[in-house]
Amino acid sequence: MQVEGKVALVTGGAEGLGRAFTEALLEAGAKVCFCDVNTEQGESTYTVLKSKYGSDRVIFQKCDVSNQTEMEGKSLNYLFRCTKETFGNIDIVCNNAGIGGEKPPLWGKVVDVNVKGCICGTLLALDYLSTEKGGSGGVIVNISSAGALNINPYGPVYLATKSAILSLSRSFAQNPLACSGGVRVNVLCPSFAETSLVRNISEQNTYDVNVARKFVEHTPSMSPKDVAEAFMELVVDESKNGAVLKCSKEKGKQYCTINVTYS
Ligand SMILES: NC(=O)C1=CN([C@@H]2O[C@H](COP(=O)(O)OP(=O)(O)OC[C@H]3O[C@@H](n4cnc5c(N)ncnc54)[C@H](O)[C@@H]3O)[C@@H](O)[C@H]2O)C=CC1
Ligand SMILES: CCCCCC(=O)/C=C/C=C\C/C=C\C/C=C\CCCC(=O)O
Q1: Which residue ranges have their beta carbon within 6 Å of ligand 1?
Q2: What is the ipTM of this complex?
Q3: Which of 32, 85, 219, 233 maximizes the CB count within 10 A of its CB?
């Protein structure tokens, strides 16, 4: 896909990986709407990006991806509508917003943000991108985790949500809604990257926090820019649909094949 002139929507773009994805898309010539629940950080990032890329190429919207109804404030429905109204089309969607939290009552919010937010964002993306519904096709990249391909005793709820994103994306890639509408659906599975999510590992979002921190310390971490490079490959390479791309500091990019049969 030629990214120049295309329109992208990124959730959770105020900082971390979402900000790096937003910048990579802007750098490649796209117009980007990024959203975040954190207005202060979002506005601050917007100020930087606007001065670098121009106010006609980037917009920031406050949005909580776990908000399923218009009544409660800025929902994903609103975000998609606003992006289309501002830029005229949507070609690229990245469902990135995600949080960690293992213990009650936090784990319910983790499911709402990571799973429901990604499902809602994927369904809306199919609606807006599909050629059968007036769109011009395009690509959805959902953000899972390298942990979703394995087990991890310290973050079972977080990793369950990331496994859900993996299955959701691989399944939608073969679904008629996507296939007949010219929409590719790919999933990125990063290992550790230097962001607030990892810096803020605590008793609330991991079991055995000291062991978890040691595990993180001993696993080489990527910069958000490294992860954005892998993300852009899934956007640009039109041969990739249903692709599962793992990336890590030690091994770089690796496409994963998952073979499961029903019998
Ligand atoms: N940092 C890492 O090592 C890895 C991160 N990931 C995934 O990458 C994604 C981004 O994570 P990071 O950048 O590391 O985290 P981060 O905490 O640095 O950034 C996440 C952003 O999402 C926003 N956000 C949180 N809840 C939201 C909501 N309900 N609605 C809208 N925005 C919301 C936050 O305010 C923040 O700006 C997440 O889905 C995470 O699970 C996956 C693998 C590794
Ligand atoms: C090789 C595992 C890569 C996991 C990368 C990832 O998604 C990082 C998430 C970091 C924090 C999320 C917060 C809580 C979830 C808890 C654990 C995740 C794994 C932590 C660990 O010690 O392995």
Answers
A1: 11-12, 14-18, 35-38, 41, 63-66, 96-99, 113, 143, 145, 190, 192-193, 195-198
A2: 0.94
A3: 32
